[in-house]
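Sequence design from tokenized structure. All designs in this work follow the same two-part layout: the structure record, then the generated sequence. An example of the structure record is given first.
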């Protein structure tokens, strides 16, 4: 009796063609994701030749979503989300509302129902956290404040979308679709209350119990010194928590896996967990994007080109303009607004899940899913160009003083030092860029030594806290000359760049040297290549994190171990 090899065939085809087309995409300076999507189109039912098992591919894609969201949780903690809450929370919610409105307007123009327009607009409004993380990692800005805002913004979007996914079946009947059980007359409010209660119970359990229990389990497994068991524990936690969340609380796999990553991040072994699970996460991420490509029918590009163009314009420019305006209105720098705008100029995994749910509920017409897939594929392919455009706009904004002044937040009291700042703090001081874990430690040391300093930090809430503590601080991107001018760089003795965002370091150094030719400069970096480039430009003293850690450990060893006679 022959064996059923459909799983092996699907895996071999997805990974093999994903490798080939991913390689071609990278050679063409496109994201590898575009190649994976193209591989899915090739082995999907819409193109001639070999057709993979779409049902199996869908299940493998579900695992991919779980592992990807688990990785997002490992990289982002509640503390990070709380730090950017004042911009990410209102910004994401208002941006979703604006983009959903644009989508609903298009759907109404095309003659769709209100329910179909709502699902369509929501699908256009959310971006892919996975695509964003890869883009920020390539740019080296994942750990920067702007990077944390962008990730926090998309995490809020994900949480809102997950809430929509669990509420949509309950309200489908009201919107003209297939009514869910229990959502009939008198049952809608009950269904909504039960859904929200399940989400609340799950989140409370993960925050109160999971944050202690699962890191403890991970530590116990790590004590066995078995790499296989440790990796198995990490993957079992990701998939197991996601499955249990679905079965016990009615939560989506994605949200369960996301919270699994968040609670494991509390462990001291979180970095090892991320490292050990990375190969499997990457492999299943490929399967996810390949399976998405299998759903796409390329004929939509020929049959409905204007509708596809309208979708792409909404995703690339409609969402971006709305996000830029919101961030500026929330009194954050134009550079932050441009970063968030470029981050949102794409669609992702939750868009596909929303589309599938909308069709199953009888809300979204079949062509809506094809338009969403077309918009996602094209927007992901064009997203790197949006980042390049944002960089160009930021440089142009910096060169045009009149335009820069318009967006410099002159009305923001935190953008300027108070008039009451003692003159003794603004002469011979250290200008400290960044007040994160490294910057705050440097500040404590400077305070202990009686050395005056001024902090330049992009986090408004943090600057407000520093001022309440009597520390001189200004808010803004130190790559903008106006921020260093406010920090009195022309009278400073040293510029210390303690932020992990090295993208604007050259602009900081250029401004500091132009206003204070004798200033000393110290720069933090994690990249040897970046350090070599900065040294070649005589940027001052360069400190590479790993090298400084090695020096400190070597000095500790030399101090505590007596030399042989």
């Amino acid at each position: 009796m022959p064996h059923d090899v459909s799983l092996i065939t699907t895996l071999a085809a997805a990974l093999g063609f994903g490798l080939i087309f991913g390689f071609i995409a990278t050679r063409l300076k496109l994201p590898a994701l575009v190649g994976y999507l193209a591989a899915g189109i090739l082995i999907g039912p819409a193109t001639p030749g070999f057709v993979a098992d779409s049902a199996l591919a869908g299940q493998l894609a579900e695992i991919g979503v779980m592992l990807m969201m688990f990785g997002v949780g490992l990289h982002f903690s509640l503390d990070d989300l709380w730090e950017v809450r004042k911009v990410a929370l209102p910004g994401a919610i208002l941006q979703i509302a604006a983009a959903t409105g644009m989508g609903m307007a298009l759907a109404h123009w095309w003659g769709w129902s209100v329910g179909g327009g709502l699902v369509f607009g929501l699908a256009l409004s959310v971006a892919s956290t996975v695509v964003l993380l890869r883009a920020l990692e390539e740019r080296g800005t994942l750990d920067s404040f702007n990077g944390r805002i962008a990730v926090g913004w998309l995490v809020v979007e994900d949480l809102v979308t997950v809430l929509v996914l669990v509420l949509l079946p309950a309200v489908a009947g009201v919107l003209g679709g297939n009514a869910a059980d229990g959502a009939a007359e008198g049952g809608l409010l009950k269904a909504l209350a039960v859904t929200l209660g399940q989400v609340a119970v799950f989140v409370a359990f993960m925050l109160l119990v999971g944050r202690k229990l699962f890191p403890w389990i991970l530590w116990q497994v790590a004590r066995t010194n078995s790499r296989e068991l440790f990796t198995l524990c990490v993957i079992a936690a990701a998939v197991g928590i996601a499955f249990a969340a679905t079965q016990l609380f009615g939560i989506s796999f994605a949200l369960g896996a996301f919270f699994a990553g968040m609670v494991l991040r509390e462990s001291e072994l979180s970095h090892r967990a991320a490292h050990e699970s990375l190969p499997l996460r990457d492999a299943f991420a490929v399967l996810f994007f390949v399976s998405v490509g299998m759903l796409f029918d390329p004929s939509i590009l020929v049959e409905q080109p204007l509708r596809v163009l309208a979708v792409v314009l909404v995703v690339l420019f409609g969402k971006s303009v709305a996000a830029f305006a919101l961030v500026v209105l929330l009194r954050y720098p134009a550079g932050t607004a441009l970063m968030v705008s470029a981050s949102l100029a794409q669609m992702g995994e939750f868009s596909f899940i929303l589309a599938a749910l909308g069709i199953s509920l009888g809300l979204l017409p079949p062509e809506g899913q094809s338009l969403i897939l077309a918009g996602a594929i094209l927007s992901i392919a064009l997203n790197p160009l949006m980042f390049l455009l944002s960089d160009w706009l930021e440089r142009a904004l910096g060169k045009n003083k009149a335009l820069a002044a318009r967006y410099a937040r002159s009305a923001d009291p935190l953008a300027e030092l108070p008039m009451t700042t003692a003159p003794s703090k603004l002469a011979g001081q250290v200008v400290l860029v960044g007040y994160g874990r490294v910057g705050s430690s440097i500040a404590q040391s400077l305070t202990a030594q009686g050395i005056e300093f001024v902090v330049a930090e992009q986090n408004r809430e943090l600057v407000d806290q520093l001022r309440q503590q009597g520390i001189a601080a200004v808010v803004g991107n130190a790559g903008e000359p106006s921020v260093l001018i406010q920090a009195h760089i022309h009278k400073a003795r040293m510029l210390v760049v303690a932020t992990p965002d090295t993208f604007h370091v050259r602009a900081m150094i250029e401004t500091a040297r132009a206003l204070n030719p004798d200033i000393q400069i110290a720069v933090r970096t994690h990249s040897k290549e970046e350090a070599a480039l900065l040294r070649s430009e005589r940027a001052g003293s360069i400190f590479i994190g790993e090298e400084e850690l090695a020096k400190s450990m070597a000095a500790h060893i030399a101090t505590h171990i007596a030399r042989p006679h």
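Residues 413-560 form a domain with the Rossmann fold fold (CATH 3.40.50.720). We note this feature because it recurs in several other targets discussed in the main text.
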